[in-house]
Amino acid sequence: MGSAGDDGAAPVRLDPPERLSRTVTAWEGEAGRAWLAALPDLTAELLRRWRLTPERVLAAGGQISMIVLVRDAEGGPAVLKVGLVNRETDQEHAALAHWDGHGAVRLLAADPGQGALLLERLHADESLRSLAEPRAMLEATDLLRRLWVPPAAGHPFTSVADFTGELAELLARRRAEPYAADARALIDEALAARAGLVADSAESFLLHGDFHHGNVLAGDRMPWLAIDPKPKVGERAYDLAWLARDRLATLAAQPGSRAAARRRITSLADALEVDRDRLRGWSLFRAVEAGVWYLSVGGREDGELLLEFASWL
């Protein structure tokens, strides 16, 4: 196949994979369908502009982004990521640029307005989930130490306080919905925990925002690198809360799940010198908020599992 940037070459049309179409349609409705319809033309334009030759679309790619393995004009391997731009993803490029490959995938080019990123090629089929949990947690905590750096002056990132303030307002409104009836006590506890946490937080680090084993891939220049940040600025316990509930289905299936979840909170807090109570509070809020969101979009199984985890804390 000739390069998509070659003169006279036919435009390359790449259709979104089924998983992407399904999740974007379920989560974003009509706006998601419109974005999906425009995605093949947008991707073709990016291939032409950045002189990329597509190899294949990753069927298992992102939930709100299309991932294309490509070759650049010199034949080097890279990844084209074209994602739906929203309040969580619109600063991904800025975080990757700030980290500049230290602990995270290297950004090669970006068109933020179109949600387009050209990234170094990692091993998409080898995440931290390929490791046994104890080893994966050690690698994950080591990587977080590199990612947690001060943001630059005048940075564009949303603060944890502001972002979770919006989420708290939505959660309070969803509390009245029939699907949330059984979760109202947990919702009240989560909202109170969040209010206390933002009232006295003094830390200001650049955070990944969506850090879990699946978002850490094997690389060539470093053993493990983070991908897919949804960056925020704030305290480290907020970032660690996602990791605290990693492999949740496995955790829930084992005997003594409640005690195991609490031990994990303690272990992660001690390993990264984060206050245990603050990690517990953010883990509670983030699990409840995500669980109720899943209920709101019809994802009852995922929602109930997250709320069960929150009840253990």
From TrEMBL:
UniProt cross-references to InterPro entries, sorted A to Z: Kinase-like_dom_sf, NH2Glyco/OHUrea_AB-resist_kin
The protein's name: Phosphotransferase
